[in-house]
Amino acid sequence: MKHPPIPSRDLGGKFTLNNPDDSTPITEMFELDHGLLMITEKCTYRVQVADQIDPDRKNPALPPNFQQKLFDYGTKSDLLCRTLLQAKVMFRKEFQSVNINRAMQLSFDALGDLVSMYEATQAFKSAERAAIEKAETLERKDASQTIPAVGNVRGSCKTFVQKADHFAASLLD
Predict the structure, then answer these.
(1) What is the Rg, in whole angstroms, of the alpha carbon atoms belonging to the chain?
(2) Whole-prediction pTM value?
(3) Which domain holds residue 104?
């Protein structure tokens, strides 16, 4: 008697985090937002199994798991350690009477806003450095002074302040 093939998601197996830029070991792992967060020294990833994506099993061709790099910040990052990993220690059912899953999700959202703020700051600083270097290399042809300028400063500041507001809202929640 011939049996139908076993779907790949029903077979045992293993996987690796597919990021050639990150060969560091997984140092933290916990469930969050219908997936598993895996944190290495350099990066943070979300891994979901096929049954989380297709619980009705309508697509038997799905691979057993899906992985996505979320942040270029891992356990070597103060930003991640002082937010998400500190929340993981602080929000435990043994210590708190709050909804732990919601608190962890809000902490994760706050981390996302902090990462956006940090990256916006770094992008602005880089643009500022480039403008200063360009102004310094200009040949002076007369007695005028060229002042370095970065375009769309208002937009950069607005982005930063909006992310700071989102972070504050996550903290209040």
Answers:
(1) 23
(2) 0.79
(3) 100-134+152-173
pLDDT in tens, 18-68: 888 898 999 999 998 778 999 999 999 999 988 888 888 888 778 888 899
Domain for residue 91, yes or no? no
Read off the tokens for 138: 């200009």
What whole-number distance in Å separates Cα of residue 75 and Cα of residue 64? 27
- The Cα-based distances of 133 to 142, 150, 152 in angstroms read 19, 12, 18
List the structure tokens of 160. Answer: 């930063």
Phi and psi dihedrals of 132, rounded to 5?
-65, -45
User: What order do you get walking across the sheet with 44-49 strand by strand?
Assistant: 26-31, 36-40, 44-49, 65-71
In one letter, which amino acid is 16?
T
Q: What is the full DSSP assignment across 99-166?
A: -HHHHHHHHHHHHHHHHHHHHHHHHHHHHHHHHHHHHHHSPP-SS--PPP--TTHHHHHHHHHHHHHH
